[in-house]
Sequence to fold (565 residues):
Amino acid sequence: MSYSLPYPEPVRYAPDGSPLRGDALEVPEVVPVEGAPAWNLRYEDGSIADCVVLRGPDGLVLVGTGEGYHQGRAIAAAIEERFDAPVRAVVYGDRRDGHCSGTRAVLAGHRIGRVPVLAHETWQERRTPHHQAVSSIVAVRAAMQYGRSLRGADDRGPAPLRPPAVDEPPNPLVPPTVTVRHNQEMTLAGLRVRFLSTGSGEEAALSLYLVDHRTAVITTDVHAAPSNLSAVEGVRASVSADWRTLLTRLSTLDIEYLVGTRLSPLRGAENIRDFLSVYHDIVDYLHDQTVRHMLAGMPFEDVVQRIPLPPNVVSGPFTRPFHGNLLGSAAQYCVEYLGWFSGNAVDMAPTPRGERARRGIALMGGDGRVLRASAEALEGGDPQWAAELARMVVEADPGDAPGRAALTRALRALGDNEANPLRRNWYHSAALEVSGELRLSHVRDALASPASLSPREILDGLRFRVAPERSAGTTVSIGVNLSDTGEHFGVRLRNSVLRVEAGIPAEWNAGIRLSRDTLVDLVTDRASLTELMETGAIEVQGVPGPVEELWDAIEPRPELSLHLR
Fold:
């Protein structure tokens, strides 16, 4: 088949491989979608802000508000400059903070609460504490993927990360005030809107159909290519049913204009049908062929090597690996359906990695011989084998300097030869960590500070820092009173499990009173419990022993590493 133009252009990338998504402080250009009451916000580098503006007779509707408070301010400035109309509604099409965390800035000229913020009826339940629990490691993995730790191509030193601005609210997210369901219609700013959802696990994803304008507005459910189904930093395994449902629903509509927060607009019913039909086929092909090999008992790592793509798809634009890659999505299907165990009995209780590496090195003749083989592989044009050999030495001893140097060289070579920008960024970021030029703990602390969380979320995060070796046999309950917010919580430790409940606990051994800022200082290890009690920042109600006993069970924030363990 022929691929009709215009086709969504891929995101452009900087020389170091990081995506050019626009400076958060740069005001984007408001670009109209000719023929439709919709506008994209585009930066000079060609990237699109995560926001689509819809204009109706009575004002504006925003689908998404951008990535963070600063980009929200830039979006607000662009809208104010281009439109002489008020914002009547905000729609959260995607539950990612990167899609909806600019709302507080966008609505700064309005009163928060007066402008309705709409989201799917399952939006809040999808934002579970379990998702929050891993947000810090996800932030670090995203930094690896997007190259936030990299400078230019000729300077591999770590770049400083932007600290929060003094005028940035602690929690920029404005929760939805109105929830909607699939196929529900309502009028927003004078526009007749029908809401669409994926209809399965990612129900919180929401798209819009402007009934009177033959225009569909989609968020991140459909990207420029199906290669984007799974990014490398880690996402929920996206079963093809999620995309199939939305694509099927879109295909039943009379669409002349397809607009997206991550998609350059498509015009023409035939172009859009081509795009949706081939996209739909590729999603199903990848899923079905993965299951085909799984049913034969094929190991996961072999499945991804055994899925040839149809020639007509390979020759089209649909497999360009600009964000993820198709075979990575295949691996996630394996985990989604069958879990962690490959099915091979030898993998049931494997030898610990470090011990396996030490035994393997001994059989191969020692570190020197392994590293010489690694150097030969790199010289011979096989950086993957070179990296695998060097990794054995580092796994056996993470402090081994020659092993780390060899692994750094191999990782840089892998990155230099990688076409996928996000994988290239990961290789180069990994090389920085292995060489000692980058500490991922610093990246975590800059990108995932507890200062952006609510007091309840901060306390909940302590659940994942309980060290069993420090808390065995400890049972204690304390009350926590936030002096500046008036909130009360009960924190109970029993059997090395910490639980947090709202309100004053019925039974408690002691209580503490502190401000939210003091709580942040405590959990980020900026100040010790003893120091804060001595200065009066923490007031203890009762005897301090139970408070000290509970805090002794909480380990400091761990040193984070992905390549030196």
About this structure: The chain is about 40% helix and 15% strand. The two ends are 49 Å apart (CA to CA). The chain has a mean pLDDT of 83. The longest helix spans residues 269-294.
